[in-house]
Every structure is written in C-alpha cells, then in structure tokens.
Amino acid sequence: QVGLMLRGMGFDRNTNIYLASGKIYNSERYMAPLLDMFPLLQTKEMLASPDELSPFQNYSSRMAAIDYTVCLHSEVFVTTQGGNFPHFLLGHRRFLYGGHSRTIRPDKRKLAVIFDNPNIGWKSFKRQMLNMRSHSDSKGIELKRPNDSIYSVPCPDCMCRVNGTEDSKSSSHP
C-alpha cells in the first residue's frame, strides 16, 4: 500500500527512499513488493556496516535516533504512522526549516476508503494521491490550534526568538 501510495503521488523507481523502521517481521517476504517498486530503498542496516551499528544495536532508542536524524535532514519526509516519532519530526522539521520542510502527511481515513474500493482505476487513484500530496505538502508556518500538539505544530511565539534584539530586550528588563 505504501508503494502504491508513493507511486500514485508521483514518485518513481529512481526515487531514493530511506525506510525508518525497527525490525520488520518476515521482511524478505513483506518488503519484496516495495523493493520491486523502489529499488533504491535503503535502511540503516543497508547503509551502515555491522561494525558501525554495533554500538547502537542493543538500544532501540539509539537505533531510532539514527532514523530520526536521517528523516530530519531528508529532502521530503512522508509519514505513514502516528505516534511520537513522526509528530516530533514534523515539528522539528517545521522549526528547523522555518516552516518550509517538504512533509507529506497522507490522510489515513481517505487512504483506507480508497484502498477499500476494488473498482478504483489507476487514473482515479493517481488523481486522488496527487491531490492528497498537494494538500499535505503545503508549506509555511501553521498556527497552532488549541488541540494541536506543540511538538508537531510549534508555535513561533513559543520558540526561541529569531531576532536577537527581542532576546536582548527581554533579558535587559528584570
């Protein structure tokens, strides 16, 4: 499903993909279709030697930190799950790149309906995926709504000031 979604969004087999994940059960079987669609797919285990990974191997948080760092600095980040990892990444990328990070957050409810339709043709599927990509690929700093997480939508007023004069004004007054 992830491969079809990415292909529908316009990514082709020449796209470099980094898959951030833990151990995938029966990965040879379940990853084969995705590898066929995207042969340039890489994981930390494919990019680093066993010796390079050995200091991190028995620590899941350290292994996740490798994935986090790669995703943080990637050209495009596509999240396919919820949880803290993508929420922190969304906010960190938004803050780091001044709201101009290319991040795709597919609408999971719409995806479920689309994938559940056995009669959908490729043209319709692709149109819906491109629409979903353009909607979630919008850039700029979003204003935090009351129920939004501060981690995924950092409010500029709450972050460190960009202008040094604002910092000096606040520190000069007791």
From TrEMBL:
Source superkingdom: Eukaryota
InterPro entries: FucosylTrfase_pln, GDP-Fuc_O-FucTrfase
GO biological process, one term: fucose metabolic process
Name of protein: O-fucosyltransferase family protein
Annotated keywords: Carbohydrate metabolism, Fucose metabolism, Glycosyltransferase, Transferase
An annotated Gene Ontology molecular function: glycosyltransferase activity
Organism name: Genlisea aurea
Family designation: Belongs to the glycosyltransferase GT106 family.
